[in-house]
Amino acid sequence: MAIPAATMAMAAEWRETAHAYDVExxxxxGAAIAQGNDEAEGHGSGYEQAVAIQFIxxxxxxxxxxxxxxxxxxxxxxxxxxxxxxxxxxWFKCRITRDSGGLVVEKLTGSQNFxxxxxxxxxNRRILLAGGFHGYEKPRxxxxxxxxxGMSPDxxxxxxxxxxxxxxxxxxxxxxxxxxxxxxxxxxxxxR
Length: 192
Hints:
Blueprint lengths: L4 H13 L2 H8 L1 H12 L5 H12 L7 H4 L1 E11 L4 E4 L3 E8 L2 E6 L4 E9 L5 E9 L22 E10 L2 E7 L7 E8 L2
Antiparallel strand pairs: 1-2, 1-3, 1-9, 3-4, 4-5, 5-6, 6-7, 7-8, 8-9
InterPro entries: DUF4893
Pfam family, one: DUF4893
Protein name: DUF4893 domain-containing protein
């Protein structure tokens, strides 16, 4: 099946927008997941292990931009790294809206938030390029001046692969975050 020219152009667009370090993070997503899963094995509570397994094994469907718009509950799952190795956090508020540039994703509540744009990368996934900020700060854009080259431990840019697991269920996988874990998942469940 041929990929439509518009889809190919949008896929190229995220690569042109992203810092080279972030392109590498996305391109090595599989390695981050494999390493993080190895580091998390046998760690966390039974509940945390069940949640992580559910995400690892969830089948991915076609990403429907229109269905993604709206209010969501979201929670972070940190996998791997040298600290807790597997942690599932409580639910917060997120939303996805559309503006003239496309879909915008925001984590609205909690101590660590982000706001960024989704870019098409084939029919089944989107790429999130976002600026991270603390709950007491105003949103900051992706590649804000204090983002440096992306490799600093103080880097707050967020990059993820977004996938639709169902009409009311999304998975955002963040490979190689600057701190704490080897990869993060943010689960989006429809806020009803």
